[in-house]
């Protein structure tokens, strides 16, 4: 397809170029709209802050600080000039633990979400796009996995496979993909109804070609918004699992910090610096993802936009 | 795709068939679905403990069986030498009879243990869910109806913050604040447990004592759930506000409150029930963590304790009960939805 | 005439406040409906006719600013107290909404929805009275009284539309506003619905304001027609005259867009007007129809034409009425 204009002599544009231009323009528009959401921007700011902390952890606090054998601070010491957030029961700086803990908390959350989104999107597309028994079976499968209770499964897996971060990632991935799959499925179903899918079929476009070129690009925005909300839940889940001692005891995460804090009775000894900051960090990060996710949903769904 | 864009355009001479299957057949379908899910759950439950890496006898009797003779006896008792399909059949039969194995830690049948520990959990979770639903739905409705107003802004911010908080951390904060006390706030509530040591639980004093012990845990779970429910209700109601039938209702001369309650809220309850049902799975999780933090001797704490041993029969039984609970809750939610929305019954 | 008209709209302006600026949907509309009269409002989507309809009962959205008067039996609806407004709504004037597909509550039975209207306006009605009235209303629109137990999704589009009409008549209103009552219905059903409407008007002497983009439908049914474009009235007059011999070019285009059955020449006429309705936020300042008008000339550009009254009770807002056609226009006209 070319567009030429004799009088102005514009350059012929290929179909692919045009699509890409349109997509870029759509992304720019979306970003401009997102920027108008104050809550979404606040969430983004918080998220950027924590991602930077996680990435710059080696610079901000020496990893030596995590070593239990070389720790020489007071046991459960209150915050002081030297230890800004006090120390834990091993004499390590709580601030150091907090900074390094952000890595695990964010990483596990993101990895688990990735797994969940890939499985969920794939199965959602399949069960939405394909009718017949393939579609039905995948839908049935999705419904079955939906009822698997998350925490009991985590506990059982920990008992059988032992405690590790891999387990945590696995459990979160396995139990959160059905939610995504159902959402993608309903999106796919509504896109399928649209005329251009029919037209593509009429000209003989193959099924996977269709899914790739037509359905997927239209589903992606919803996937994107859903991902941020899923990460929020994944991080909460990881924190809970680590708190219950189901994670790797050698790795510090915010959840494991809270586990230690609880086990040694920080509440009764009044060691608030140990038990409050990790929780606050979790709340901030999860809140950030939730705000971003909500703002994204409003940007992508015009109906929602009208009501804010 | 039909040639007629809107089925409503079909000529009136063919009257629309009212093929009302009715609620009874909808119910039947959903019950069958629940049974199917239960079957799937039993399969998962079985294979979790036997197909995963490790010799079953070592896994299931870890740490307790050392001699070959012991292992052989264990294998025989639980049929672990038999081929897998036969084992599964034995497992099904036993489960159907309520035989969920023997607890390694407590040396009592698992079913007895679960029955004993069920009630504190039901009390805790049931009370919290009811309170959270009532309060959360009210907050969501009020926030959505006067969207952007001061109540809405405060309520939504609070809900978002509570939603982002691990419920057990909230519990810890409540214990620190109101159980132990800090600054000028007195610690008046018990910091854990369900009963005071020298009180008879079944006496009137005992009941009041139990209630007092449950105040903080129930508050924790209620706050955690209601944040979620109020956000969902608000979102559902906002979705309904753009609908045409509300304009019709107002045109008929109905008062604002009537339009809201009879039409908007009534319809907004539909997606709300669905999503609350999907969240039921997390209700179980919430019970586990809150029981741990408050030392409430319910099913949740039982599972955490069983993890230490590890007491596999208890864990298997627990997983079964937890999954069955989720399936049951989903079924109930589906039935309520079917009663509320006439469109799914046809 | 000392008796006030049933409905008298004077200099109505409705402006929406949107995120992208003020959107004037209705820009100074005058309209009158008398008892027993059917007045049609014609125009494309976006011309402001639906806004007009909802404003009559003060149902405009929250972000709309309204000035002017909407007098119902002499009382201004826009400044009425809340209690009086609620009494007028439905019992004085009712609306049959566009797209009855979503105008009925999907989870209530249609009988209950009609009954709701009855209960709002009369207290202490017995159940038999209500049921009897519902049966009567359904019968009047040609529906089986058994349908009262049905839910909206169990009815076809035409049946739902007839339920809306029955519901609109439940409280014996004096004025019925029908907003696109036959859009999305096939031709046979459309004919049935229109005949129901016209019978009701003749039998009960209600006044009707009928809104549609289909000028031929209005020409059949209405006594007078008002044509709207970009929020203003561009032509007004007796229905037959406006349809057969339109003064304003836009009315001419609307009229030509719908082939007349039995007119062989119409089969060769290309339907449709090029271009789109203007964006109300960015109006040039001259005649808002000029960009698409086959008769546009320089004289149209400086100012928006005023509504001028002509003979035979007709009015139009075009500065080129009465001027002879140029040769180019004549040939264009011939082929249009």
Can you walk through the features of this model?
The complex is a heterotrimer of chains A (308), B (346) and C (336). By secondary structure, chain A is mostly helical. Chain A is built from 14 helices and no strands. Chain A has a single domain, classed as Orthogonal Bundle (MetI-like fold). In chain A, helix 2 packs across helix 13, helix 4 packs antiparallel against helix 5 and helix 9 packs parallel to helix 10. The N terminus of chain A is likely disordered. With 346 residues, chain B is mostly helical. Chain B has a domain of 195 residues: MetI-like (MetI-like fold, Orthogonal Bundle), CATH 1.10.3720. The mean pLDDT of chain C is 83.
Provide the fold topology:
The complex is a heterotrimer of chains A (308), B (346) and C (336).
Chain A lengths: L14 H21 L2 H18 L1 H4 L33 H36 L2 H15 L3 H12 L3 H28 L2 H8 L4 H37 L10 H10 L2 H4 L2 H4 L1 H24 L1 H6 L1
Helix pairs in contact in A: 2-4, 2-13, 4-5, 4-7, 4-9, 5-7, 6-7, 7-9, 8-9, 9-10, 9-13, 10-13
Chain B lengths: L21 H29 L5 H5 L7 H10 L6 H13 L13 H36 L4 H14 L3 H14 E2 L2 E2 L17 H37 L3 H8 L4 H23 L1 H15 L4 H10 L3 H29 L6
Antiparallel strand pairs in B: 1-2
Helix pairs in contact in B: 1-13, 5-6, 5-8, 5-11, 5-13, 6-8, 7-8, 7-11, 8-10, 8-11, 9-10, 10-13, 11-12, 12-13
Chain C lengths: L6 E12 L2 E13 L4 E5 L6 H8 L7 E9 L2 E2 L5 H10 L1 E4 L13 H12 L5 H14 L16 H12 L6 E5 L7 H18 L2 E6 L2 H7 L2 E6 L2 E7 H6 L4 H9 L50 E3 L3 E3 L10 H9 L1
Helix pairs in contact in C: 4-5, 5-6
């Amino acid at each position: 397809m070319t567009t030429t204009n004799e009088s102005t002599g514009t350059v012929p544009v290929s179909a692919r170029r045009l699509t890409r231009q349109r997509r870029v323009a759509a992304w720019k528009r979306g970003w401009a709209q997102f920027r108008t959401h104050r809550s979404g921007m606040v969430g983004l700011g918080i998220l950027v802050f924590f991602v930077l902390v996680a990435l710059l952890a080696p610079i901000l606090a020496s990893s030596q600080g995590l070593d239990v054998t070389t720790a020489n601070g007071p046991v459960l010491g209150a915050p002081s000039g030297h230890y800004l957030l006090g120390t834990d029961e091993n004499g390590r700086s709580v601030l150091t633990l907090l900074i390094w803990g952000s890595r695990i908390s964010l990483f596990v959350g993101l990895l688990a979400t990735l797994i969940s989104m890939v499985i969920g999107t794939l199965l959602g597309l399949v069960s939405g796009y394909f009718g017949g028994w393939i579609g039905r079976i995948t839908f049935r499968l999705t419904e079955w996995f939906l009822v698997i209770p998350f925490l009991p499964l985590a506990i059982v897996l920990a008992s059988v496979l032992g405690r590790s971060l891999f387990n945590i990632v696995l459990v979160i991935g396995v139990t959160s993909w059905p939610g995504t799959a159902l959402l993608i499925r309903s999106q796919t179903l509504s896109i399928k109804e649209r005329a251009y899918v029919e037209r593509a079929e009429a000209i003989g476009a193959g099924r996977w070609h269709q899914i790739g070129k037509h359905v997927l690009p239209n589903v992606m925005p919803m996937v994107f918004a859903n991902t941020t909300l899923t990460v929020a839940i994944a991080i909460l889940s990881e924190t809970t699992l680590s708190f219950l001692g189901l994670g790797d005891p050698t790795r510090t995460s915010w959840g494991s910090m809270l586990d230690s804090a609880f086990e040694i009775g920080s509440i009764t000894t009044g060691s608030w610096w140990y038990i409050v900051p990790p929780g606050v960090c979790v709340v901030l990060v999860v809140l950030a993802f939730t705000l971003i996710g909500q703002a994204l949903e409003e940007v992508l769904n015009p109906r929602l936009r009208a009501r804010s | 795709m039909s040639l007629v864009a809107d089925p409503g355009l079909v000529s009136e001479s063919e009257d629309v068939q009212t093929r009302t299957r009715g609620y009874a057949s909808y119910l039947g379908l959903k019950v069958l679905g629940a049974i199917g899910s239960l079957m799937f759950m039993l399969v998962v439950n079985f294979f979790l403990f036997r197909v995963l890496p490790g010799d079953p006898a070592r896994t299931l009797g870890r740490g307790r069986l050392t001699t070959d003779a012991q292992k052989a006896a264990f294998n025989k008792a639980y049929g672990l030498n038999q081929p897998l399909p036969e084992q599964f059949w034995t497992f099904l039969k036993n489960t159907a009879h309520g035989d969920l194995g023997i607890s390694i830690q407590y040396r009592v049948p698992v079913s007895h243990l679960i029955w004993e520990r069920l009630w504190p959990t039901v009390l805790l979770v049931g009370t919290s869910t009811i309170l959270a639903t009532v309060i959360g739905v009210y907050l969501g409705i009020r926030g959505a109806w006067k969207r952007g107003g001061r109540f809405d802004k405060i309520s939504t911010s609070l809900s978002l913050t509570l939603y982002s908080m691990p419920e057990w951390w909230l519990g810890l904060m409540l214990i620190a604040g109101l159980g132990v006390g800090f600054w000028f706030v007195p610690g008046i509530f018990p910091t854990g447990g369900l009963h005071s040591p020298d009180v008879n639980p079944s006496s009137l004093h005992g009941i009041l004592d139990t209630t007092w012990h449950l105040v903080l845990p129930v508050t924790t779970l209620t706050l955690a759930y209601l944040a979620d429910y109020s956000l969902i209700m608000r979102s559902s109601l906002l979705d309904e506000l753009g609908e045409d039938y509300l304009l019709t209702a107002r045109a008929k001369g109905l008062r604002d409150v009537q339009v809201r309650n009879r039409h908007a809220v009534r319809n907004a309850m539909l997606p709300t029930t669905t999503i609350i049902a999907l969240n039921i799975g997390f209700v179980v999780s919430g019970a586990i963590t809150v029981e741990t933090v408050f030392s409430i001797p319910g099913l949740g704490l039982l599972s955490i304790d069983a993890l230490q041993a590890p007491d596999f029969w208890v864990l298997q039984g627990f997983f079964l009960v937890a999954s069955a609970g989720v399936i049951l809750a989903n079924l109930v939610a589906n039935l309520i939805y079917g009663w509320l929305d006439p469109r799914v019954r046809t | 005439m000392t008796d006030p008209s049933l409905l008298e709209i004077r200099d109505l302006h409705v402006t929406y406040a949107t995120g992208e600026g003020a959107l004037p949907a209705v820009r100074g509309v005058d309209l009158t409906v008398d008892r027993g009269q059917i007045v049609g409002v014609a125009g494309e989507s976006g011309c402001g006719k639906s806004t007009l309809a909802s404003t009559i009962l003060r149902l405009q959205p929250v972000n709309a600013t309204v000035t002017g008067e909407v007098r119902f039996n002499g009382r201004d609806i826009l400044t009425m107290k809340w209690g009086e407004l609620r009494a007028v709504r439905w019992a004085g004037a009712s609306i049959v909404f566009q797209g009855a597909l979503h105008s009925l509550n999907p989870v209530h039975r249609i009988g209950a929805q009609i009954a709701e209207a009855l209960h709002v306006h009369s207290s202490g009605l017995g159940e038999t009275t209500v049921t009897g009235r519902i049966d009567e209303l359904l019968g009047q629109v040609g529906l089986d009284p058994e349908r009262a137990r049905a839910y909206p999704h169990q009815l076809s589009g035409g049946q739902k539309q007839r339920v809306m009409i029955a519901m609109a008549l439940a409280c014996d209103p004096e004025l019925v506003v029908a907003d696109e009552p036959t859009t999305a219905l096939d031709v046979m059903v459309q004919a049935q619905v229109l005949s129901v409407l016209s019978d009701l008007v003749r039998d009960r002497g209600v006044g009707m304001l009928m809104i549609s983009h289909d000028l031929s439908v209005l020409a059949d049914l209405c006594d007078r027609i008002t044509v709207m474009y970009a929020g203003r009235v561009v032509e007004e007059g007796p229905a037959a005259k406006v349809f057969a011999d339109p003064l304003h070019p836009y009315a001419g285009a609307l009229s030509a867009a719908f082939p007349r059955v039995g007119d062989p020449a119409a089969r060769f006429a290309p339907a449709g007007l090029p271009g789109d309705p203007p964006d109300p936020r960015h109006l040039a300042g001259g005649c808002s129809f000029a960009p698409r008008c086959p008769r546009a000339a320089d004289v149209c550009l400086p100012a928006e034409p005023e509504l001028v009254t002509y003979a035979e009770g007709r009015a139009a807002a075009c500065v080129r009425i009465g001027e002879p056609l140029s040769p180019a226009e004549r040939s264009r006209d011939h082929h249009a």
